[in-house]
Amino acid sequence: MGDQPSAEALLRAMAATLADQVVPNVSGGPRHSARVVANLCTILARELASPGPGEVDEQLRALLTDRVGAGVSGHNLPALLDDRLREHDEEFAVRALPILRMDVERRLAISKPSYLHDPGAAGSERA
Predict the structure, then answer these.
(1) Are residues 58 and 37 part of one domain?
(2) Tens place of pLDDT per residue across the chain (127 aa)
(3) 75 and 30, same structural domain?
(4) Locate the DUF6285 domain: which residues (predicted)?
């Protein structure tokens, strides 16, 4: 059904409605709540539009398989990665860095895309 809006489009419309019509017409706690919900709708829309973690998981799985064999699953990837990085194996760390960077960039594109385009953005919000 190509004529129906996607979940991403619906979430973006909800965010715009809240930001443009609700937030300006309420104050106090309800205003804050409307902003939060609008922001959450925008984040969810970006998440739906983004590629999933599949490519990162595949690359990490391939990187870790040399040591642990075929028993690498998505659930134990973080723990196995932590264990390998604690070994201070510089060659492994050099191979893992671009994969981890890709994962961080994917996550930032969803949660805070401005951090990818403005190198000072991350530091400017720190307390």
Answers:
(1) no
(2) 566 888 999 999 999 999 999 999 999 999 999 999 999 999 999 988 887 777 788 888 888 876 655 555 556 777 888 888 888 888 888 988 998 898 888 888 888 888 887 666 555 544 3
(3) no
(4) 24-115
SS (H, E, C) the chain: CCCCCCHHHHHHHHHHHHHHHHHHHCCHHHHHHHHHHHHHHHHHHHHHHCCCCHHHHHHHHHHHHHHHCCCCCCCCHHHHHHHHHHCCCHHHHHHHHHHHHHHHHHHHHHHCCHHHHCCCHHHHCCC
Query: Do 23 and 59 reside in the same domain of the chain?
Result: no
Q: Please tell me whether residues 82 and 44 are part of one structural domain.
A: no
Q: Indicate whether 2 belongs to any domain.
A: no
The total domain count for the chain is 2
Show the tokens assigned to 70: 């075929």
